[in-house]
Amino acid sequence: MRLIAALAFTLAMAAPAEAQVRRFVLAGVGAVPTSRAYADGFGWEAGSTRLFSVAAAPGNYRVTVTLGDPKRATETTIKAESRRLMLDAVRVPAGRRVTASFIVNVRNAALTPPPLNAPDGTRVALKPREQGSFSWDDKLTLEILGDQPGVSAVTIKPVAVPTVFLLGDSTVTDQGAEPAASWGQMFPAFFKPDVAIANHAESGETLKSFLSELRFAKVLESVKPGDWAFIQFGHNDQKANWPQTYAAAETTYRDYLRTWIAEFRRRGVTPVLVTSPDRRNWTGARIRSTLADYVAAVKAVGAETSVPVIDLNAASIAFYEALGPIRAPLAFNDGGKDATHHDNYGAWVLARSVAKGMAAARLPLAQHLKADLPAFDPSHPPAPETFRLAPSLAHDSTRPDGS
Question: What are the boundaries of the region Disordered (predicted)?
Answer without folding.
Answer: 374-403
